[in-house]
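Hi L.,

You mentioned the student needs an example of a multi-chain input paired with its predicted structure. This one should do, with 1076 residues in total across all chains.
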Amino acid sequence: MAKSKFEYVRGFEADDALLPNCWIVVRLDGRNFHRFAEQHEFKKPNDDRALHLMTKCAQTVMQELEDIAIAYGQSDEYSFVFKKKSKWFKRRASKFMTHVVSQFASSYVFYWKDYFKDQQLLYPPGFDGRIVLYPSDQNLKDYLSWRQADCHINNLYNTVFWMLVQRSGLTPVQAQDRLQGTLAGDKNEILFSEFNINYNNEPLMYRKGTVLIWQKVNEVITKKIKLPKETEEKEVEVTRTRTKVVPLHCDIIGDQFWEEYPEILAEDS
Amino acid sequence: MAKSKFEYVRGFEADDALLPNCWIVVRLDGRNFHRFAEQHEFKKPNDDRALHLMTKCAQTVMQELEDIAIAYGQSDEYSFVFKKKSKWFKRRASKFMTHVVSQFASSYVFYWKDYFKDQQLLYPPGFDGRIVLYPSDQNLKDYLSWRQADCHINNLYNTVFWMLVQRSGLTPVQAQDRLQGTLAGDKNEILFSEFNINYNNEPLMYRKGTVLIWQKVNEVITKKIKLPKETEEKEVEVTRTRTKVVPLHCDIIGDQFWEEYPEILAEDS
Amino acid sequence: MAKSKFEYVRGFEADDALLPNCWIVVRLDGRNFHRFAEQHEFKKPNDDRALHLMTKCAQTVMQELEDIAIAYGQSDEYSFVFKKKSKWFKRRASKFMTHVVSQFASSYVFYWKDYFKDQQLLYPPGFDGRIVLYPSDQNLKDYLSWRQADCHINNLYNTVFWMLVQRSGLTPVQAQDRLQGTLAGDKNEILFSEFNINYNNEPLMYRKGTVLIWQKVNEVITKKIKLPKETEEKEVEVTRTRTKVVPLHCDIIGDQFWEEYPEILAEDS
Amino acid sequence: MAKSKFEYVRGFEADDALLPNCWIVVRLDGRNFHRFAEQHEFKKPNDDRALHLMTKCAQTVMQELEDIAIAYGQSDEYSFVFKKKSKWFKRRASKFMTHVVSQFASSYVFYWKDYFKDQQLLYPPGFDGRIVLYPSDQNLKDYLSWRQADCHINNLYNTVFWMLVQRSGLTPVQAQDRLQGTLAGDKNEILFSEFNINYNNEPLMYRKGTVLIWQKVNEVITKKIKLPKETEEKEVEVTRTRTKVVPLHCDIIGDQFWEEYPEILAEDS
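Structure written out for the whole complex:
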């Protein structure tokens, strides 16, 4: 049972090292999440439990893996951006993809009950992932803008669509017909005139998706200490600075976000 | 907020279609499972609960995804072999890898309690995956032989190692020193003379790992039917043939296995 | 002027090793050879000088490079098949492609005058190349059949087309119109009834293209030797066996060719 | 002889499109040029004929192919830099590599006699090529600096080595031993003290290699024109601006070159 006789098969594994000095983006999507959402009675057009669970999983991915500078999520997708200079696992593409999706998938089941309470998880969900390189900062910002523009377009559509179905009693097909060919302005107008909804007042999380960045956070913790010459422990409050993954629901298409958080794109970050 | 302005970024995604007419192997491994095993009190050298859970996850992967002809697992790793002719997702490498590992990872958490009962899962585990192509049937058989030979070598070592630690009271370092430079025959001899263990009588699952194949299985189910001219339902037993994923613990290095199951390698399977 | 400061740029070169145990095909095509043929007054539909020069270049490629088992050429293209087991330059794709096309291109200019005599070469021609892997022998045979079928289809068309232009005085556009929608049988019929040409009697090189294989060839050479006990040299004829690249113009689509030359596909060849 | 039955083999060709928005560098090297140089009696350490022929070939490549922004050559190698935004042949790597090396190789034979006069070309030379991507301008500049630093190091070594052999009568092995472990300063000192050579006065082409860039050049040409109301043609001089490939022998490691020719790296160039 000589191992060596068979070991030649290792030579068939291809080297999939990614080009250095490029931003590495891994985007994952839920597999068949349309069906999954129905079976688990997700609220339409947005289910807070599902969105918060997605973000919890993405935070876990950022904390467990290395070199993720920023993540962006909406609906059943999340994009993770690894630093240009990352040398994690020698930049092997398969490592980045599989670590991200497996950590995300196991976290999804693990944290499910924290968000869905009595709503039982019926089966283990799947996710697919892909990896894309972006050579310049502008390319990366455009990628994230593309995803956020996509979030906006879909959410505006879904918001009107479900109002027409839920409040006006249209069938899904009728609602679809009604929206056929409408522009953003038309949809805003329907929302306002028919449902008294100002789209711009809809929750930011729905309209902008979720941005995850690393932030220094001051935590006040209570410690028990015993001072010299005293016999009893005393409780004192200590302020500790930690770096945490923080969710934001803001515009990332304009320049303001990047001016406010220059460290995200900083070469040596 | 024009989407089109940013959509050029889609053009940065590379085509990762795999060469046609080759066996596609996706192998996954637990991430930091040494630590994970300790924290979850896995029995040494083999934990039946952990092995059965791995196999349950692999079965789920085979049932949920398409075109998997055979799978082989041992310890914290599993290999999935997709058919040569598979056109699943246009043979895009990233799709194969991420679907396998994400389905496996979510299943691991989902089915955990069925195998580990009161042993709580402390955190969501990660898995990494890789993809390798094998052009010929012989290459594929040699790949699987390589993994099974690896199983044998590791299990023999671990069996003696843990006997020395658990029964003879050696420290891990002492046990390691004792086994340094020993051949398979030496290890068998230690097991036999010092612990009265005939290695060949150890459970096949430990020595051979687990092979998963598709098998036609006859199931006898009870159906309630109402015959014409009768007013009451009657219970009858019906035999139904289904194709199921079946675990085997047998040698796959020799020819016998492949002669017994020729359909696994059959071109049109 | 420290070299080391810049040497990091070497790390940007990707590993392009080809999958082991697959046939490696490099196919090259003349760049803008339609224009090139006109400017150098190639005879239509086939120019023997040009075809023989192509084959001379291909023979040079086979002799200069390593591990080429067979080559096939027609018109301004040539395909080179490297052995499945070849480890030449660690199977790096770029090495195979660039060595083939550069050797072919320099040979084209070098040997031009041997075939084109007084017809001056006006400028240095370019060639493009690509590389494709074929996992099975059948795939490889089908690849070569594809090229030979292409040769047949194009040559039949061109033979009729140029007859219509050269003998019947049609303009190229008229000839094209005449042939629009015709099947092979129609074209054979035009050749026979209008030009008294039996297509099957056209030269094999035009209809089948050129196959290059390695053959043992007996050469009779004259050597001067001095026998013991004699004082003068004597001329003797010696038969020497050499392995040479030999051109054939035969069918390679059917089984007969492969049965006649089994060594081409032999694993250990 | 149905073509369609075999056409499936086209599906085995992999998509080798290069990542957008990166500099594309193709570097070629002479194959076995050590032997080639000896057989063609190249002058040591530098043969002007050979260097000028290399540059003539590189100019031809730049003129015949598209989107080459700059080229750099030394010894028997040349690097061609294609623009970041180039969409030539859909950025397929094989196209870039094979067009460059085949055009270079055919030009080498074609223009040989213009530089080597009576020195016959004995056989057609080969070249190998590779392709590398550089995401940032700095990466590209560092790549070119790497090649120029390499030129300097090799040329300084070769200059001393051949002085020791040609003037001091050392054998190659003795010269090699003498130079073992010497630093740049030591080599400069040997040249100066033993051969009265100030290395910095050596020709720039040897020390810096050759940079090829596109330059607007004013050409004064003589045209025959016939003015209205005149009956005879008159010769007039006309100044015409053309874009030509111009060779420079200057430092490209420092900033000055890039400040002087900002258009080379300009995004829209």
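You could point out the following to them. The longest strand of chain A covers residues 210-225. The first helix of chain A runs from residue 33 to 39.

Best wishes,
N.
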